[in-house]
Amino acid sequence: MGFSLQVSVPAITVFLQGLLSFLSPCVLPLLPLYIGYLSGGTGVRQEDGRICYERSKVMVHTMFFLVGVSFAFFLMGLGASVIGMFFRNWQVWFARIGGVMVVLFGCYQLGLFGTSEVLGSEHRLPLELGQLAMSPVTALVMGFTFSFAWTPCVGPALTSVLIMAASAGTRMTGFLLIGVYTLGFVLPFLAVGLFTTTILELFRKHRNMVQYTVKIGGILMIIMGLMMLTGRISAVTGEPETVAQTESEQNSLPSAIGFALKDQYGLTHALSDYKGKTIFLNFWATWCPPCRAEMPDIQKLYEAYDTEGDNALIVLGVAGPEIGQEGTEEEITAFLEEQGYTYPVLMDTSGELFQAYGVSALPTTYMIDRDGNIFGYVSGMLSMDMMENIIEQTMTGVRKQ
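User: That's the sequence. What structure does it adopt?
Assistant: Structure tokens below.
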């Protein structure tokens, strides 16, 4: 029943984070060491000083190494997705808090906070690779343990993507984010496995580029964090995908619970009065900071949309006088007048409407379609873009996945 608010980022951005993680100073300089392990000791130094490896053995071991890396990343993604599903009712706030964390990681990677003992040191499982004969199984274990290295380069980037995966609207979107990041990270390893000597020589000549890739990665993190924080976010594919509802899905929408309540002006509003019109029903309280923060945008909606015609939108607020910390009906009215809010606010003096709609967090917004059915709801503060997004979904009868 909740809307998917597209709390994710374009795939290309996440892919670049994976690629930049590979090009970081805690991965790129170690490539000759890891290739030496993966070659199983087949490296032969040529007359020109270059080391040549047995390509088939390096390639097989690299493939198993990448399976280990991918498995570890997806395990972490699964954990992040489970956390995100647990906080699904607070998805908007979860995304915004995550956005702040991603911005902070980006600032750290840019060097604005100095160095950290936690993020600045590498933590891996105690595995002495030199004592193990290289085999596909050893390569797989090596990739798995390498993935849990906590370094100043890979750690912030991977953690940022995990936060975004946890904030994604669906579990599939979260897994897709992890998959895109993993693809960006492992493809260069695959290239090294295919063209070992040539690629290593190329990286040796351009090893100074890592100082720039770290900064670029930090900038990308800040951009992604700001997108999460502001709600100005597109779908993981780069364009929002719409999925039409089947007739059975449309018929299964629950009917909105009827009401007939007076607003701050003493006018009565009944659900039956608005048959054939889309309703934006916002539950709020004067003591609720997120509620107060989104009210200017709700007022703009009220002024921008017509109340008649095919695209009619009825904007209604719902307040609960003397319920919990809320003031009296007169105090709520005075607050609305003082702030210049003129859209109708229904006075639910008994709290029955709050209870009937199962409101457990404020603000909560319900969208009711033209047929009087609940099309969806969102718990948490909405930006103007999000408001217009859920209105469009309700008016067209199409949910964005």
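Residues 4-8, 120-132, 232-250 have pLDDT under 50 and may be disordered.
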